[in-house]
């Protein structure tokens, strides 16, 4: 099932996988079931290398796995993996074919972070398919962490990235249809969220992560989400673990979500517990409007133990480990 369809089907009134679903998103060999039907992940050493990603992106994790299996490093793996989705025109949330903003412009946000804590990001990037690779170049060849808009685009051209029209016919059609019916107000619509975030551990046990998106569909011109913001959309600490987010970026930014998850793991929480705590910070805010938006996290620790959790049903994590490439439904908060 396509990622966007997952979200479309995430009826706010649906009950779904309340029982037993807690077991679906974790490393089974590291967990046991409690009487409260909670997943507990024991610490242990998982088999390396491995890669995980937000949503059902098995082609992307397969590419990353290919790099890792051949002895490549985690940084190359996550970049190559994300590029698969950026080039996939059918995915209307990432790279080419992404849904545009309200003016009809496709604008991309991406970031990448390596085992040394180096990072690079691009925001509001237009006309370039592989935003994640431009983010990597920001990290590697500039003294900066983030480039925006025209500056980022110019930088990419100087490095030889080709100029491409990112607005495909189906996305243009969807935008035109949206213009007819929608008001010019911020719309919190859970159909519109899905970013590719990827985390990998290579054969040396080193971590890297990347995140790439066209952001919230039909966003206000100039809007930037969580995905390129280090600490919000992505955070990697090679000593501890890594986390990447998807969903309504504004809510992730307000809670500095990915950094929070990694810090909670530093304090001893399992990746699963840390993801659940980060979601609880969002949903337990006074007057939280969480019924009207989705946020999901996937995380792994240095040992390769993983976790994933979201506010609503139909979020999932793809994991490639031990030669097995699987999409695992995530447990979620809103069971009502
Ligand atoms: N997190 C992204 C953003 O807010 C959207 C998404 O995950 O689809 O830009």
Q: Could you walk me through the main structural features you see in this protein, from its secondary elements to its overall organization?
A:
With 336 residues, the chain is an alpha+beta fold. It has a single domain (3-332), classed as (Glycosyl)asparaginase (Glutamine Phosphoribosylpyrophosphate, subunit 1, domain 1), CATH 3.60.20. 28% of the residues lie in helices and 23% in strands. The protein has 9 helices and 15 strands. The strands form 3 sheets. It has an 8-stranded mixed β-sheet with strand order 6-5-4-8-7-3-13-14. The two termini are 23 Å apart. The relative contact order is 0.18. Residues 93, 193-195, 213, 215-216, 225-227, 246-249 line the site of aspartic acid.
Entry keywords:
eight-stranded mixed beta sheet; 28% helix; 15 strands; binds aspartic acid; disordered N terminus; 336 residues; Glutamine Phosphoribosylpyrophosphate, subunit 1, domain 1; alpha+beta; 9 helices; globular; single chain; 23% strand
Tally the structural domains.
1
Task: Describe the strand arrangement of the main beta sheet, using strand numbers.
Answer: 6-5-4-8-7-3-13-14
Strand content: 15-25%
Q: How would you describe the shape?
A: globular
Question: Could you say what the CATH topology is called?
Answer: Glutamine Phosphoribosylpyrophosphate, subunit 1, domain 1
Q: What is the number of strand segments?
A: 15
CATH architecture: 4-Layer Sandwich
Query: Termini, distance in Å?
Result: 23 Å
Poorly predicted tracts of residues: 1-43, 186-193
């Amino acid at each position: 099932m396509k990622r966007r369809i997952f979200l479309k089907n995430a009826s706010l009134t649906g009950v779904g996988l309340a029982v037993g679903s807690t077991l679906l998103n974790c490393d089974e060999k590291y967990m046991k079931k409690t009487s409260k039907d909670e997943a507990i992940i024991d610490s242990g050493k998982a088999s390396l290398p491995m890669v995980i990603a937000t949503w059902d992106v098995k082609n992307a994790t397969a590419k990353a796995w290919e790099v890792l299996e051949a002895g490549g490093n985690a940084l190359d793996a996550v970049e190559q993996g994300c590029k698969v989705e950026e080039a996939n025109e059918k995915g209307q949330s990432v790279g080419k074919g992404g849904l545009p903003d309200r003016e009809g412009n496709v604008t991309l946000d991406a970031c990448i972070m390596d085992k040394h804590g180096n990072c690079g990001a691009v925001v509001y990037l237009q006309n370039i398919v592989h935003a994640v690779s431009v983010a990597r170049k920001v990290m590697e060849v500039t003294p900066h962490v983030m480039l925006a808009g025209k500056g980022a685009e110019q930088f990419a051209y100087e490095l030889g990235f080709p100029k491409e029209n990112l607005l495909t016919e189906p996305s243009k059609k969807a935008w035109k249809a949206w213009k007819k019916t929608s008001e010019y107000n911020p719309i919190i619509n859970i159909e519109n969220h899905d970013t590719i975030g990827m985390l990998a551990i290579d054969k040396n046990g080193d971590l890297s992560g990347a995140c790439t998106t066209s952001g919230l569909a039909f966003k206000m011109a100039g809007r930037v989400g969580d995905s390129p913001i280090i600490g919000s959309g992505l955070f990697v600490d090679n000593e501890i673990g890594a986390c990447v987010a998807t969903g309504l970026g504004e809510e992730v930014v307000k809670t500095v979500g990915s950094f929070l998850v990694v810090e909670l793991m530093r304090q001893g929480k399992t990746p699963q517990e840390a993801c659940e705590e980060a979601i609880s910070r969002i949903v337990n805010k006074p007057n939280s409007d969480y019924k009207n938006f989705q946020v999901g996290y996937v995380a792994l620790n240095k040992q390769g133990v993983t976790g994933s959790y979201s506010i609503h049903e139909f979020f999932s994590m793809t994991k490639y480990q031990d030669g097995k490439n699987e999409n695992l439904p995530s447990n979620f908060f809103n069971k009502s």
